[in-house]
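Case study B.
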Amino acid sequence: MTSTASRPSRVAKLPPRERILDAAEELFQSQGIARVGVQAIAERAETTKMAIYRHFDTKDALVAEWLRILAADYQAAFDRVETEHPGRPREQILGLARFIAEGLPTLSHRGCPFINSLAELPDRSHPARQVIEEHKARQTRRLVGMCADAGLPDPEQAAAEITFALEGAQVSTQNGSIDRVGERLLRIVAGIVDRPRASAP
Amino acid sequence: MTSTASRPSRVAKLPPRERILDAAEELFQSQGIARVGVQAIAERAETTKMAIYRHFDTKDALVAEWLRILAADYQAAFDRVETEHPGRPREQILGLARFIAEGLPTLSHRGCPFINSLAELPDRSHPARQVIEEHKARQTRRLVGMCADAGLPDPEQAAAEITFALEGAQVSTQNGSIDRVGERLLRIVAGIVDRPRASAP
DNA sequence: CCTGCACGATACCGATCGGTATCGTGCAGG
DNA sequence: CCTGCACGATACCGATCGGTATCGTGCAGG
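Model:
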């Protein structure tokens, strides 16, 4: 499994499974799930449909695995932000917002893969849909915890505000209705975290 | 109601074009664009594919027309909210938020049709995509105007905040990560509109 | 050295896609 | 009354979809 480059040809190619997942990532993100055929993924991965079906039972299973990896990547990035500011929830939250804001130009007019994929998966029992919903639920729980640690009066409401802002920023980037989205997003989240309280300690 | 048409001529049927658009509306909203075939639309509209192609050049043209009508419906609803509170921009903005909040339970786990459709239309030159982008741009312009009328210090930033909140609320309703979304949305928008200013008149 | 198996290549399957051609008929507008 | 045309029905088109079967080969692990 661990490859060890061997020495097949000049360029060291990744093993087929990785190439397939990379190809799926690029095509699903740029064109959506339904528009991308298994054959197209095979071609971009420089392999064949048969190889794909050797690693994944169905196209849906490949979609689910792609989203699983993507969710894990996001979780890892959030973990990194959190450990960068130990015991400082305010900075953790702002770091998270900065991470999203910095990713916006990359998403450009294609938006967030989770939001987009959900649109193509109306069936609530679809495995990929469950991956997304669990990821979003985890992310919300984490944010509520941070808001509580930061001493915000109503952590659940604050987490909802921040979540709406993050999701809305991605949607607005996609449809191009608002300029300087990243900048505005950071100001909004800072406003929530630094909101003046009614009572003082 | 659809099911079997036992009562033929008793019930006044809408003309085919309206039935097609109604059927498309229901199927696109509940299943997405790509998953719905022209044949399925014809069946639900109790007509044939030929009739659809008599009224619309392509499936894409039908999609664009559906979104055009939907955008017009939203515009009309916003107009109604605006004229309900003449000269009172604060109430207009809150009315707009209430309109969206009340619609959330209906959207349920399927979310906003504009957001969902954008996910399925990666091609920026697609006519339907342009319909959506123009609609969102108009909506933002209207909101900026209301915020300016309400005397908010930075109308563009306030409009962005409100837009993010509205879009984010719809996304979070779809993925189920947050409870009592409508209630939270109203509190957020009220907070923006009633935010204490640095200077007073 | 030997061998099993992942791999790539190729050919195929039924189903469904968007879109077209053709024709008979009922009804609305002149 | 007459007629044109929207309509419904039916049959068809090539392309593509997800998924499968089969086979030869090169290389890694024993």
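Chain B touches chain A through 46 residues (CB under 8 Å). The remaining cases will be described in the next quarterly update.
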